[in-house]
Design goal:
Elements lengths: L7 H31 L3 H30 L1 H19 L6 H29 L9 H33 L8 H9 L7 H11 L6 H36 L11 H5 L13 H25 L5 H8 L4 E3 H4 L4 H18 L5 H23 L4 E3 L8 H22 L6 H22 L6 H4 L11 H28 L5 H21 L1 H4 L4 H21 L1 H9 L1
Antiparallel strand pairs: 1-2
Length: 554
């Protein structure tokens, strides 16, 4: 399967993986960080989160224009990588205030804008070659998997560094403490019984007074998050070195239409569209851009309200078996065992492949058992670890999705790219239906007033939701990028990839701003809103399906 793709795809894969590892390391703790350091409410954190994600995905429009009109894809990507390093480096510095935070976030947004859309455009250029064209959709599935390999390890990196810094001061993470500490320091905590109990549990005989403890805990927790941001900056360096070091594999595709026009050798290879073809393609693109806004508004609750749900409504201690899925030392060999089983039962595989599968199954199973046997009967989990399920599901489900659509392609029954996007919308709606069921009987966030619910549910509700929404994402996100790559008028390739991400930006902004309803509605009402938005989007997509499919073929 991989032999049918150009080597430049894998350079983009690892470049993207490094950058996304950094981004998701930061995102795993971002809301927790600004709430812990600055005492933000959910609504205030949601505004910052929404504006930041808006910038992350809106600035690719500027980056696309810069690449298409001025300096080309490769140079714009390189400039973006440097800016991202500077921004994350600023966030790694402890002790700064809100102004420096916002400056750093702005730099990261611009840098990501220069990087993200243009790397996607570069991948699309690789598949303009007729030799590879038929594999364009599959290529973006593989490219997208690179995002999620990095994203899978990100929460563990953030959690590991944070816990290490806390441990050096004799502290452990407790989700209740930051909000209570800020309320106490602000003179708004009427009953100090819970905070006093938690403080004594943390410090034991070293406890002196609540004021000193509150300040110390907030400062130490904030510094632990700063250390995690330093890991983010280092991952950007790795991404930069990969992109520069293996330039020869994508250099031939690093050309905009403007650059081709200045080359006598390439002038004849420029694709020229009629005004009507250009108009139809732009209509199809802008329509899809509008519709996916509502998917991203719903999907990016994973870093906002779903993270709060994990912290405030989900048990923080789990059994030994469940903890196996939250700990890398046990989860990775468990995944290896699953891969081994798949290789063993797959029809038509060679003896060597089955032998490798047997070794992975037995070895992975043994290591999983050995590691899990060392766990206590009850183990604590950090809420940010829930964010590793979506990316690992992406990694494991991508080959399944590619295999399924490859089978349909051979049968002549593969759905069109726009149809896959519509199907993704429907599955997303189903995913948030799971959360409505999970939310029955839970108090509203308004009732909690910044505390943690007394009624806590199983982590498997969130895990199941992440599994379902991952399938939706695989039908929509890589297919959307592929659609933009295929349909964009040649001279607007970078700009249109930026347009896709700008639409994502609007959805991300709404993802944060609807935190207003999270603070005021019952939980089931909030998730019902997401279901309605996804269903409306699906109806819109299928209502103009023929036009979208014609644009893909013209």
């Amino acid at each position: 399967m991989l032999k049918e793709h150009p080597k430049g795809l894998f350079v983009a894969f690892f470049t993207n993986m490094g950058e996304r590892f950094g981004f998701y390391t930061m995102l795993a703790i971002f809301v927790y960080y600004i709430q812990a350091k600055f005492g933000y409410t959910a609504t205030q954190a949601g505004v910052v989160y929404g504006i930041f994600l808006f910038g992350i995905y809106f600035f690719p429009l500027l980056g696309g224009l810069l690449a298409d009109r001025v300096i080309g894809y490769g140079k714009t990507i390189t400039l973006g990588t440097i800016l991202m390093f500077l921004g994350y480096g600023l966030m790694a510095l402890p002790g700064f205030g809100q102004l420096v935070l916002f400056i750093a976030l702005g730099i990261i947004c611009v840098g990501t804008g220069f990087f993200k859309g243009n790397l996607q455009a570069l991948v699309g250029n690789l598949y303009d070659d007729p030799k590879y064209e038929k594999n364009r959709d599959f290529a973006f599935n593989i490219f997208y998997m690179g995002i999620n390999v990095g994203a899978f390890f990100a929460p563990h990196a953030a959690t590991g560094v944070s816990n290490w810094i806390l441990g050096r001061s004799g502290l452990t993470y407790n989700a209740r403490i930051p909000a209570l500490a800020h309320q106490f320091l602000a003179g708004a905590l009427k009953d100090t019984t819970e905070l006093l109990s938690l403080a004594k549990a943390q410090l034991g005989s070293n406890f002196t007074d609540l004021t000193s403890f509150s300040k110390m805990y907030i400062e130490t927790l904030s510094k632990s998050y700063n250390a995690a941001f330093a890991i983010t900056a280092l991952s950007i360096v790795a991404s930069f070195l990969i992109f520069i070091g293996f330039k020869k594999y994508y250099k031939h595709a690093d050309l905009t239409e403007k650059q081709k026009e200045t080359s006598e050798e390439l002038k004849d290879k420029i694709i020229r569209l009629t005004k009507n073809q250009t108009r139809n393609r732009l209509f199809a693109l802008f329509f899809v851009f509008f519709v996916v806004i509502f998917f991203w508004m719903s999907f990016h609750q994973n870093g906002f309200t779903l993270s709060m749900f994990a912290r405030d409504y989900t048990v923080s201690e789990v059994s030994r078996v469940t903890y196996t899925f939250f700990n890398l030392k046990s989860f990775l060999p468990f995944l290896a065992a699953i891969i081994g089983l798949a290789l063993l039962i797959r029809k038509g595989t060679m003896v060597l492949t089955k032998s490798i599968g047997f070794v992975l199954l037995i070895g992975g199973g043994f290591v999983t058992y050995a590691v899990a046997a060392g766990f206590n009967e009850i183990m604590p989990i950090s809420p940010q670890l829930f964010m590793h399920f979506n990316p690992i599901f992406i990694v494991f489900l991508t080959p399944v999705v590619i295999g399924f659509f490859s089978y349909l392609q051979k049968q002549g029954k593969e759905p069109s790219t726009p149809k896959k996007i519509g199907i993704g919308m429907i599955i997303a709606a189903f995913s948030f239906g799971i959360m409505i069921i999970a939310s029955r009987g839970l108090p509203s966030p308004a009732e909690l007033q910044g505390s943690v619910s007394n009624v806590l549910i199983s982590p498997y509700w969130l895990i199941t939701t992440y599994f379902s929404v991952t399938i939706a994402e695989l039908c929509l996100s890589p297919m959307g990028i592929s659609f933009v790559s295929k349909v964009s008028p040649p001279k607007y390739k970078g700009t249109m990839q930026g347009g896709w991400l700008a639409a994502t930006a609007v959805g991300n902004a709404l993802a944060g701003f609807i935190g207003y309803f999270w603070d005021r509605w019952e939980i089931w009402q909030f998730f019902l809103l997401l279901i309605v938005m996804c269903c409306i989007s699906a109806v819109l997509i299928f209502s103009v399906m023929k036009k979208l499919e014609r644009a893909s073929e013209s």
